[in-house]
Amino acid sequence: MTELTEIKAAARKAAFARRKAAFDAGHPAPAAHLSEVLAGYRGVPLSGYMPIRTEIDPLSAMEEAAAHGPVGVPVIQGAGLPLKFSRWEPGCTLREGPFGALVPQVDDYFEPEILIVPLVAFDRSGGRLGYGGGFYDRTLEMLRAKRPTLAIGFAFAAQEAEALPLEPTDQPLDMLITEREILTF
């Protein structure tokens, strides 16, 4: 393991512990600020995510957005590949995808212009530490090469880190939303 790999692994371990504590504390309306931001982008194609384990839950904001335009969820295509996004609607039939995240039973792919990005840790300059697969970094790089694409990190405030071990391939967030605040970078 390289030194950076070890530093990232330690940062992830600490962030997972903070995220679990925040998740266990149970926040009443964690997606209220997310809904507020998305209301300004009605009808713009967006992707959320189906929360797994201790991730903050964006579903109420996704449901509101789906009344105005296409909403999708990420579908992993394979290691080293960018994500694809399949159209999701409240109540649609789901199946288990890779890593246990639910995806729509029927694939109906489209390209979102806004991505609500799950994460392990974030910093106040738009840095994001993910799970280590590079899926969102590759996907954001691909989408941003075609058109402006807004990356909105969604996390518990407790997932903030002082500084993150970032690499040149790490795609920055444009905005970060927690249960407490909205940060724009």
From TrEMBL:
NCBIfam families the UniProt entry points to: MTHFS_bact
Keyword match Ligase = yes
Q: Which reaction does it catalyse?
A: (6S)-5-formyl-5,6,7,8-tetrahydrofolate + ATP = (6R)-5,10-methenyltetrahydrofolate + ADP + phosphate
Q: Which cofactor does it need?
A: Mg(2+)
Q: What family does the database annotate?
A: Belongs to the 5-formyltetrahydrofolate cyclo-ligase family.
**Can you name the source organism?**
Roseovarius faecimaris
What processes in GO biological process is this protein linked to? folic acid-containing compound biosynthetic process; tetrahydrofolate interconversion
An example Gene Ontology molecular-function term = ATP binding
> According to the lineage, what is the superkingdom?
Bacteria
Q: What is this protein called?
A: 5-formyltetrahydrofolate cyclo-ligase
Query: Under which EC number(s) is this enzyme classified?
Result: 6.3.3.2
